[in-house]
Design goal:
26% strand, alpha/beta, 2 domains, 384 residues, 15 strands, globular, three-stranded antiparallel beta sheet, single chain, twelve-stranded mixed beta sheet, Spore Coat Polysaccharide Biosynthesis Protein SpsA, Chain A
Length: 384
């Protein structure tokens, strides 16, 4: 069994997820893959979810229960689980998900097919809009992320495996030896963009990052972690994206692109000030200042990343969008452009290189409940 079905460690991180934990664990334990353990890590929940999970599922020998004495956030919380995970692959699964029985088998099949695949993501379906798919993330050269996704009936585009720049942490698999070589989640992040940072380091280390369409996961979507556009969410996103730029780029690009990013954040702060959203304006400023006051820590991490570098920025740049979506940045102050329900037309193609990606920038109509104005998102697929 160990040769054809290597041991997999499924990590489920919980924080006050009482209304999700039953569906998540039941579906995960019903996976048809024959060789896995489930590491359930609790970030000091106070809603009884950890005790409930222990009571209901403690008889299953595949489970390991771990409880942190405080809320360590997504990054450090999952890193605790890695100390107890013994599988060849580690799969990080959000508490607010429900998995298809074959999801894990498909992830392992793809990972086993190519030792250079360092990270893979399941096809994540939005529970609020079952026609909507998240297939990963694209990123521009200044750290802003764009959802890779569309509809189930979108010309079969999301029925085949392809490379993406980054994956989402709701359902992602990583090689254990990759995590040991390139480092796990950056604990400085606490929340937001830690999955993108991990994938960026995968590309730096010469690994691939892929989308696995036959591994299907239903996601509630920020059921436990909410508020990207709150002042706290803006602060964490601004801080974390700046860390990525300083840590993962070669020095000349790190200086230049962090400088541009900082200017953009000050411009965004000015926009918030003009709208009398002082808490959000200060969040942008605090996010940049954190990187300046903690530069010594970032520099230490940077040295570790750069020592492990295999692929130069020049090659990785081919996988990035060349510039930010300024209209989106100013109109909503967002750090992510999320996939939406209805694609209306393809606007253009850029970065069409033999080794890189076709980046399709799509104008899309907002789903119900969103803002009235159209906005753009992007997805990537490897050139055939």
């Amino acid at each position: 069994m160990s040769e054809t079905c290597p041991l997999v460690s499924v990590v489920v991180l919980n924080y006050n997820g009482l209304r999700f934990v039953g569906n998540c664990l039941r579906s995960a334990l019903s996976s048809n893959y024959p060789n896995f353990e489930l590491v359930f890590v609790d970030n000091a929940s106070n809603d009884g979810s950890f005790e409930w999970a222990q009571t209901i599922f403690s008889s299953d020998p595949r489970l390991k229960f771990i409880r942190n004495d405080r809320n360590l956030g997504f990054a450090a919380g999952n890193n605790v689980a890695l100390k107890f995970a013994v599988g060849k692959y580690v799969v990080f699964l959000s508490i607010d998900t429900k998995v298809d029985p074959g999801w894990l088998r498909e992830l392992v099949r793809v990972m086993e097919s190519d030792p250079k695949i360092g990270v893979a993501q399941s096809k994540i379906i939005d529970s609020d809009d079952p026609s909507g798919i998240c297939a990963g993330w694209a990123m521009d050269r200044y750290g802003f992320s764009y959802g890779v996704g569309g509809r189930k009936d979108d010309l079969g585009r999301y029925d085949r495996m392809f490379e993406v720049f980054a994956v989402g942490g709701a359902a992602m698999a990583a090689r254990k030896d990759f995590l040991e070589k390139m480092g796990s989640f950056d604990p400085c992040f606490f929340l937001y963009a830690e999955d993108t940072d991990l994938c960026w380091r995968a590309w730096i280390g010469g690994y691939r990052v892929v989308f696995v369409p036959k591994s299907v996961v239903l996601h509630v979507g920020r059921g436990v972690s909410k508020g990207l556009l709150s002042s706290v969410g803006i602060y964490l996103s601004c801080k974390n994206h700046a860390i990525m730029l300083l840590k993962n780029y070669e020095l000349h690009n790190a200086v230049r692109r962090f400088s541009v990013y900082s200017i953009l954040m000050m411009f965004l702060a000015g926009y918030f000030f003009s709208r009398r959203k002082l808490d959000k304006a200060m969040a942008c400023i605090r996010g940049i200042l954190w990187n300046i006051t903690n530069f010594r820590c970032i520099w230490t991490q940077r040295l570790t990343v750069q020592r492990a570098r295999v692929v130069a920025d020049e090659e990785i740049d081919k996988k990035l969008l060349p510039r930010p979506n300024f209209g989106r940045l100013i109109s909503q102050g967002a750090f992510y452009t999320r996939p939406v329900a209805e694609v209306t037309r393809i606007n253009g193609v850029s970065n069409n290189t033999k080794e890189g990606f076709n980046v399709l920038v799509v104008l899309a109509r907002n789903p119900k409940g969103a803002h009235d104005n159209d906005h753009s998102h992007a997805w990537c697929h490897k050139n055939e």
